[in-house]
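Task 17 of the worksheet. Students: predict the tertiary structure of the chain below and write it out as structure tokens. Keep your answer in the requested format; marks are given for formatting as well as content.
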Amino acid sequence: MSEQLKPMHIDTPYPLLVVFGPTASGKSALAEGLAQLSNFEIISCDSMQVYKGMNIGTAKVDLCHTNAKYHCLDICEPNDTYSAALFQSDSRYAIEKISKSNNRALLCGGTFFYIRACINDMDLVPGEQKNNPIRQKYESYLKENGPYGLYDLLKEKDSLSASYIHPNNSKRVIRALEMLEYGQSYSERAQNFKEIKTIYDCIKIALDVDVEILNKRINERVDQMFNDGLVEEVKNLVADGFKDSLTSSAAIGYKEVIDYFDGLCTLDEAKEQIKLGSRRYAKRQRSWMRSESELEYFDANKGIDDELLSKIYTFYLDRSQKFR
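Model answer:
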């Protein structure tokens, strides 16, 4: 391999701890527990928790009631356009700050592509940025022609890339169309994902929860969100113009409540759709985890207790020795 093609490597005083797990598996509780146990600082890898005001529906930690130090939370407004490229920059800056403090970085969140963007040698094209006229063009096309019209446009321009994307995933369809204008192919990048190397020393773990138990937790979490005031949260966001955002307003838990406001469903129907969407999201996360290399699984069926915290922390310390 030539010098130019070698993946870069960034040294940190400790290897990064990277936590995977489907929604409601206990990732946040684990991160909080480890932060109390040692000098971990938490980098939130969640594409919706970056937005201010989106708290209940994203299960965001209350920063007023934690001693743990967090990064990449509440860093933009709901109407801002955020992306994996911006997260790559923000999260790597956070790792640099944590390293300078001689602390340990813990990456945790449900947007696994954000994790890969941070730790892997991925060159994200410049189209992933704010105030992007190319993206705005396709967002306007989506408004005028709907998700299937947008998808048909991608099929016409790049049928192979379209085959990798669900027609309803308009955000990803727009991304693929954007990439074409920069001379890149979404399908080629998807095929090359497994060949991309990490740029940090990482220890990757995953929380394993039986599907039946996980689905029960998801249903209970959604019920609790409504009890905690999810409808009022969405109402306040809509009043601030949140509904005009194609990104944040499409999040599970928010788009369903907006449908309720628009008279498209009852509140009970909205709640059930959130539960269904969350369960489907968890299924996609489990599929992604199966494609992730070097994952060490831990049984989290009983929740995050002291025994599991100790087991994972000990595993992290033992595995850290190989990087010395």
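Marker's comment: Strands lie at 16-20, 40-44, 70-71, 104-108, 202-208, 295-299. The mean pLDDT is 90.
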